[in-house]
């Protein structure tokens, strides 16, 4: 007696659907409008005599402007270094089990994050009229010379303000590292400093670097407020002094803005490569065969995967 006929157990794979990309005419219309407005602004600005482009070109590479740009960069680097060092210390104090250290760090953050940086810089400029020296009874320290150095006061004012923000950035980066990493380091016999240097900080830097780069760029632009200290040898202050002497504020403002753009562009490129360096390990390269296996298993291509164009996939 013959077995009943059944349908074939093997089925052929259905043909892939031919996906037709959606058309987005609104995007092209919006892009055309934006490009049209940009072209209109450039053409109108080029022909507007109020910008005084000849004066702009005359002072763009003026030695006083170049020196002021150097002072601005130096002030930014020193203030950021002070902010990073002090911010890391405040972050450790904030995470300390000691209630006194926690209270001091919280008070610091409350004061410097709760008041405008413009007000803080004005206070630092008036510090010389408030304190002339420190009298400890057996010794007297004269502060007149230090408090008359406006560059130093500007760096300290910017650095302390930046430290309040860097403390939260560092604390967030450290706390983002799983506690199991530190426990594993302790099990291997590492000390606290070795654990922080070899385990916690390398992983936390991936989170700390992007906002730190943004803070550095923001600090560069905040240096324009130190004229209230008063310190006028930085970029904006020097451009303002020159514009007041020749009664042409618009082209000198354009000169200052151009140099700010140039410096921040260089910093943004450096930030990109620094982030790329510390993001190693967050993405992985696979072959075409591995990519197909991942796509079949997960249903979609993971975002942290790139394909290696090698003969290994054959």
CATH fold assignment of the domain at 62-233 = MetI-like fold
Radius of gyration: 29 Å
Compute the average pLDDT: 82
Helix content: 55-70%
Number of strand segments: 4
Bin the strand percentage. Answer: under 5%
Overall spatial form: flat
- Can you say what the CATH homologous superfamily of the domain at 62-233 is? MetI-like
Listing every helix as H and every strand as E from the N terminus to the C terminus, the arrangement reads HHHHHHEEHHHHHHEHE
Rounded to the nearest angstrom, the distance between the terminal CA atoms is 49 Å
CATH architecture of the domain at 62-233: Orthogonal Bundle
Low-confidence stretches: none
The largest beta-sheet arranges its strands as: 1-2
CATH class of the domain at 62-233: Mainly Alpha
Structural class: mainly alpha
Count of DSSP-assigned helices: 13
Main sheet? Answer: 2 strands, antiparallel
GO biological process, one term: amino acid transport
InterPro entries: AA_ABC_transptr_permease_3TM (IPR010065), ArtM/GltK/GlnP/TcyL/YhdX-like (IPR043429), MetI-like (IPR000515), MetI-like_sf (IPR035906)
Transmembrane segments: 28-46, 66-92, 104-126, 146-165, 216-233, 253-274
Pfam families: BPD_transp_1
